[in-house]
Amino acid sequence: MSSFLASTTPRRGFLGRLAAAAATVGLSSAVPSSLAAETPAGEASMDAALDAWFGKIKGKHKIVFDTPEPNSGMAAIWPRVYLDTMKANYPGEATAVIILRHAGIPLAMNDALWAKYNLGEMFAIKSGDAPATKNPYAKITNLPLPGLGITELLNAGVLVGACDVALTVYSSGAAQKMGMAPDAVKKEWVAGLFPGVQVVPSGVLGVARAQELGCAYCFAG
Q1: For residue 49, is it within any domain?
Q2: Of 48, 78, 118, 190, which is the most exposed, with the fewest CB atoms less than 10 Å away?
Q3: Does 98 map to a domain?
Q4: What whole-number distance in Å separates Cα of residue 157 and Cα of residue 107?
Q5: What pLDDT score does 23 carry?
Q6: Contact indicator for 192, 113 with CB cutoff of 8 Å
Q7: What is the mean pLDDT of the chain?
Q8: Do residues 38 and 110 lie in contact, with contact meaning Cβ atoms separated by under 8 Å?
Q9: Over the stretch 177-205, which tens digit does the pLDDT of each residue have?
């Protein structure tokens, strides 16, 4: 669990902030009828861009990496391992999807956000003995495998989604700590996601929808 939750945001405070965020992103205690029943894999949502992004999940082999924690950047490594070993052993097109939710969202953020909002400290991610001041998982070069890191995976066609609820909750916490407007901070966080990252309504929706579309599940956090 990140230090942000463990120290500055006790469980009750986090849940309270989550409830407030739910209202912000249009969630409610009543489940919309469109989500209450099982949704056929081919049924469209009310967001054409979201449907288009999920529509990129194609091929014989498909997997989703569920990432609620940074976990030493495993979500920036395992998709490359999956794609390379699948290609070497089983024929057919393969698609890898990464869903960054909860404390996994900073993996998708650029260095400017890491520096300004002290994301290394917020999410307990270190560079050596000190909190990281830039994203160590954008491009990983200290392992004997090419193409590692979120930006490298995006360039290779891996689908990366970031949870809108988590973005709302954590940016609100950062705004409160720094005396800034929550809406402005969230807007900046969304703008600071790596090009190609798709904001999904929630991380759990992203993981579930990918599975509905045929992805195998892998816990990466």
Answers
A1: no
A2: 48
A3: yes
A4: 17
A5: 47
A6: yes
A7: 87
A8: no
A9: 999 999 999 999 999 999 999 999 999 99
d(CA 140, CA 97): 18
> Worst-scoring range by mean pLDDT, 37-51, 53-67, 117-131?
37-51
CA distance linking residue 186 with residue 37, whole number of Å: 31
* Tokens representing residue 81 in the block: 């391992």
What's the rounded Cα separation, in Å, for the pair 15 and 36? Answer: 23
d(CA 98, CA 120): 21
Q: Are 196 and 159 in contact (CB under 8 A)?
A: no
Element (H, E) at 87: helix 78-89
Q: Are strands 130-131 and 94-100 parallel, antiparallel or unpaired?
A: unpaired
Helix (H) or strand (E) holding 71: none
Question: What letter represents residue 112's amino acid?
Answer: A
Q: Could you identify the residue written with the tokens 């999807």?
A: 97
Residues 192, 110 contacting (CB under 8 angstroms)? yes
* Structural domain of 89: 3-21+67-219
What global pTM score does this model have?
A: 0.83
The amino acid present at 143, given as its one-letter code, is L
Number of domains in the chain: 1
- Written as six digits, the tokens of 167 are 């973005």
- Whether the CB-CB separation of 186 and 172 falls below 8 Å is answered with yes
pLDDT at 43: 78
Alpha-carbon distance of 125 to 132, in angstroms, equals 6
Distance CA 192, CA 1 (A): 24
